[in-house]
Amino acid sequence: MFLSVFEMFKVGIGPSSSHTMGPMVAAARFLDMMRASPFQFAGVRASLHGSLAFTGVGHATDRATILGLAGFVPETYDHNQAETALATLSDTHILHPDGLPALHFNPKTDLIFDYDTPLTGHANGMILMATDAQGDVTLQQVFYSIGGGFVMTEEELAAGKATDEGAPVPYPFKTAAEMLEMAERSGKTISAMKRANEVSRNGDPHLRSGTKRLWQVMNDCITRGLTTDGTLPGGLNVKRRAKGIHDKLIEERGMNLTAPHTINDWMSVYAMAVNEENAAGGQVVTAPTNGAAGVLPATVRYYLDHVPGASEAHIEDFLLTAAAIGGLVKYNASISGAEAGCQAEVGSAAAMAAAGLCAVMGGTPQQIENAAEIALEHHLGMTCDPVRGLVQVPCIERNGLGAIKAVSAASLALRGDGTHLVPLDACIETMRQTGADMSEKYKETSLGGLAVNVPNC
Ligand code: SF4
Fold it and tell me: Given this structure, which CATH class describes domain 18-158?
């Protein structure tokens, strides 16, 4: 099993990796299928199913699908160009993706929210269709957005987990037990094994520049969030709080007035800055998803700004270690809130961040595995119930608390010798089983929990 650090951490747009990025990626893949087809096409249609239908409006799934069919992709998304394309479409009902003829698409009738017919493969299903001049469907594909911006066709999903068809990597660990055994045998750290795997596929210069860019985008996102105030879009009237809290924290610095627990506010504010940017549709990095995108950058920023002796030179090790853990969780359970609740999103993010922090603070592979396990264990059972289907409440604060748990988990693990009762593999399997048992109401449908109990929503 090999899942690149660049698949785990992808530059994209808010507010949701599964509901915004995934549908845009699916539409891009469908356009490629159309380009490769011998048929002449005159129009396109889309239908959204399951969680994509229930929380699609709050997550901007409709907008992302339309822009994807117009040729936009998350990596190079430009907000102003997107607004222009949508305005033109609403006047003309014509899309102009590169390499295809003009395609008829009326957003009011050609994009359907199907609440009654969930698709069988995954909670986030969508069907994309291309039509001929008579309006008959001549090409159709079912896509599933499986979390973190990952997309699979119906056929790929049915073929199972073996989606990695590249050359074998030096350390192909599929479980935490295998990871620890390979580390023991090779004498390498987890990040060194992950680096060897990445280099065997993509080469060293790509890794250096790529991880540097990932941190740059994450940190820029924190900075934007800490300097922007106002109200978030979507109708809940949620006020951005990161800037105000950060301004206060700066003001209080050196005043000898602050309680020791104020350090938690720093961790929270870094995470909230990212998730407020995400909720506003800004540029974020999936870590492993958009909804949970604040936990890991906040933990890195905490390390850089608050841990004595911290160095940016270690960020690559942080990201590689975190990606190794994220790969295990994704392969053996899920990183999708629609599939397994928020334990799979913020829980996975906290496990990844705890492992990364433990690694750059000198933890052994056993301590790193312990840190990831502690962080994930104490998110088990956490549901996904975003109010009004917006990635705002509880998501923004939840990332702050996820970062605090990640730091605490790394710290606790570093105080031990790596031996512990619950193996990470057992914890990941527990998360998978808990997600499978969880009522659909708590899996990104906004049909239960806070989504139905917050007054006036
Ligand atoms: S509650 Fe958790 S899983 Fe659900 S949208 Fe918010 S961050 Fe994502």
Answer: alpha beta
